[in-house]
Specification:
The chain is of the alpha/beta class and 221 residues long. The protein has nine helices and six strands, in the order αααβαβααββαβαβα.
């Protein structure tokens, strides 16, 4: 069985997880995992929420769907487990991080970001092996939109890093008066040179958090 949401996230998303559409999606997902190789592992589907409790959220980084190759996806957007080769988009994220803050990450595992209050949220939390967006029609987008709506309605002073048109559409209803939405092209090699490089979102996020008397993120910790 797919792991379940726990803690405050479960409470905040109670209407969603008890809806017939969500239960139908879970049924479909369990069948997908039975019939095909799917990622991340069943016990890591909600890892982003486990590592970043609702009360801790200070930054949200939105990805589209998990990596489609064995060993890469582990429940955190853009992240790969320690020891796995760093994918192109994440390489570009690290390049911008070095340019912006002068520091480097030597592993593609972003767990330490999550533990500091960075919600690494994929719009679609699961995928079939080798088939990008293969689970996008199952209902995950409704779930993700509800996550963002709950955050927008009940938390303020959150930084949303919206990289690419898809993420920016998802953030369209975030209140810019009570939060900070930073937009840039996607870090993919196809679009990173159109404005992702030089966006300085990491320093901008930390400056905003510090101004709100919120502890900044140690991005290269």
């Amino acid at each position: 069985m797919i792991a379940k949401l726990e803690g405050t996230w479960k409470v905040k998303l109670d209407d969603m997880v008890n809806s017939s559409s969500y239960k139908g999606m879970m049924h479909s997902l369990n069948k997908e995992y039975d019939d095909y190789s799917c990622y991340p592992a069943k016990n890591e589907v909600f890892k982003a929420f486990e590592l970043c409790p609702f009360e801790s959220v200070k930054v949200v980084i939105i990805g589209q769907d998990p990596y489609i190759r064995c060993g890469q996806a582990h429940g955190l957007s853009f992240s790969v487990p320690r020891g796995i080769a760093i994918p192109p988009s994440l390489k570009n994220i690290f390049k911008e991080l070095k340019s912006d803050l002068g520091c480097m990450c030597h592993s593609g595992d972003l767990t330490l970001w999550a533990k500091q209050g960075v919600l690494l949220l994929n719009a679609t939390l699961t995928v079939r092996e080798g088939e990008s967006n293969s689970h996008s029609s199952l209902g995950w987008l409704d779930f993700t939109k509800e996550v963002l709506q709950v955050l927008n309605n009940t938390k303020s002073n959150v930084v949303y890093l919206a990289w690419g048109g898809f993420a920016q559409k998802l953030c369209a209803n975030i209140n810019p008066e009570t939060n900070l939405v930073l937009k840039a092209p996607h870090p993919s090699p196809l679009s990173s040179y159109r404005g992702f490089f030089g966006s300085k979102h990491f320093s901008a996020a930390n400056k905003y958090l510090s101004n709100q008397k919120i502890e900044s993120v140690k991005w290269c910790k």
